[in-house]
Amino acid sequence: MELELSQVLDIDTAGIQLLGLLKREAMDRDISLEFKNHSTTVQDAFTLYHVTEQLEQTSTDP
């Protein structure tokens, strides 16, 4: 599964937390989840909250 993030214009702490929860839930269910085409806003938020590595890892191997 892929989640397209290129059109995200604004994201806050709650949005980052929801992406993290979505990633964990996918891993728990052995579902491959990738966040694709991060907008600059998303890239900046991932960097600010130090979650780039955790949220950009592939959840499971296909």
Can you walk through the features of this model?
The protein has helices at 13-28, 40-48, 52-56, and strands at 2-4, 34-36. 48% of the residues lie in helices and 10% in strands. The protein has 62 residues and is mostly helical. The protein is globular. α1 (13-28) links the parallel β1 (2-4) and β2. The protein starts with a strand and ends in a 6-residue tail after the last helix. It has one domain. The chain is built from three helices and two strands. It has a two-stranded parallel ribbon with strand order 1-2. 11% of the residues are buried.
Topology, number of strands: 2
Q: Please give the domain count.
A: 1
Give the C-alpha Rg. Answer: 11 Å
Helix content: 40-55%
Number of helices: 3
What is the terminal separation in angstroms?
10 Å
Shape: globular
Backbone structural class:
mainly alpha
Query: What's the helix-strand series?
Result: EHEHH
Biggest sheet strand order reads 1-2
Mean pLDDT, to the nearest integer, reads 89
Question: Beta-strand percentage?
Answer: 5-15%
User: Which regions contain 5 or more consecutive residues with pLDDT less than 50?
Assistant: none
Largest sheet: 2 strands, parallel
